[in-house]
Write a structure and sequence with these properties.
The chain has 277 residues and is an alpha/beta fold. It has two domains: 138 residues, HUPs (Rossmann fold, 3-Layer(aba) Sandwich), CATH 3.40.50; 126 residues, Rossmann fold (3-Layer(aba) Sandwich), CATH 3.40.50.620. Helices cover 38% and strands 21% of the residues. A ten-stranded mixed beta sheet has the order 3-2-1-4-5-10-9-6-7-8, sandwiched between helices. The longest helix has 23 residues. It is elongated and about 70 Å long.
Length: 277
């Protein structure tokens, strides 16, 4: 983890992501970049300079955004971190993707308003960031008094190769000094006997470089319910999921489940797109 991106709209929810991003960056000794997407009724980049005075409200928004971004950057620098600020005029999902590629971010922290949906955080593109991001995305909702991660649930099918996503989870767990709990959710429409599931998970653990993950099987009506109830039962601090992104379910956790958990769970959700690894 070398460069952390924190998209922000300066709301209370985004403030949670900003603060947690700083904690993670400090632990990882990583750079932290703050990004604000500004939607304007005209193409501000192509607007002639002499016509900018016709849009005083946009100029005020730009000034406010730069001021807030500057505060965030200075706050990070006071913590001894290297920080950058970016004000981007929103053009769609490709704008965020290009920004990530251009600056080589390898981790994203963002806020969620929960059941109010993604569209209330950093613009309408955020849901697609979770679904299509080429780097791990940590979605956070509430900031605890002290941000600590001691127990992480990693939910997967364990029929396909999820070693690479697990390595990302291990990196984060090692950074936070956390325990990883492997979870398979057994459901009526895809029921498997315990010994079969345990065999798959034990075989998976043989390749686990950490070698200290617990094996857990939870019976539930669907993945989302099973993941959330298990996480609550062990008082997990974070849920990690490996998704196939836009390609759909395909035996792994689907993007919609990851998005639903971001909306409904009270703990942070780490989403890792296996197609990007």
């Amino acid at each position: 983890m070398k460069k952390i991106l924190v998209p922000t709209d300066f709301s209370d929810c985004a403030k949670v992501a900003e603060d947690i991003g700083l904690v993670i960056a400090k632990k990882a000794n990583a750079e932290i970049h703050f990004l604000h997407l500004l939607t304007t009724p005209v193409d501000w980049i192509k607007l002639p300079l002499e016509k900018e005075k016709l849009y005083p409200e946009i100029k005020a928004q730009i000034g406010h955004a730069n001021n807030e971004l500057g505060k965030l950057k200075r706050g990070a620098e006071k913590l001894g971190l290297k920080a950058e600020q970016f004000l981007t005029f929103e053009k769609g999902q490709e704008e965020i993707d290009q920004h990530i590629k251009s600056h080589q971010h390898d981790f994203i922290v963002m806020g969620s308003h929960g059941t109010k949906g993604f569209k209330e955080i950093i613009g309408s593109n955020t849901q697609r960031v979770v679904r299509y991001s080429q780097v791990p995305v940590l979605a956070v909702k509430k900031k605890p008094k002290k941000f600590e991660v001691k127990n992480i649930v990693f939910a997967a099918n364990f029929e396909e190769d999820v070693q690479k996503p697990l390595h990302k989870v291990i990196e984060f767990a090692d950074l936070m000094k956390a325990q990883i709990h492997l979870l398979y959710v057994n459901m009526p429409f895809r029921f498997k006997e315990t010994d079969e599931v345990e065999a798959n998970m034990k075989d998976f653990l043989k390749k686990c470089p950490r070698g200290m993950c617990t094996i857990n099987i939870y019976n539930a009506l669907n993945e989302e319910r099973g993941i959330q109830k298990f996480a609550e039962a062990i008082k997990a601090d974070m849920i990690a999921l490996s998704t196939h992104g836009k390609t759909g379910f395909k035996k792994m956790i689907s993007p919609s489940i990851a998005e639903n958990l971001v909306n409904h769970a009270n703990i942070p959700i780490l989403s890792i797109n296996v197609n990007s690894l």
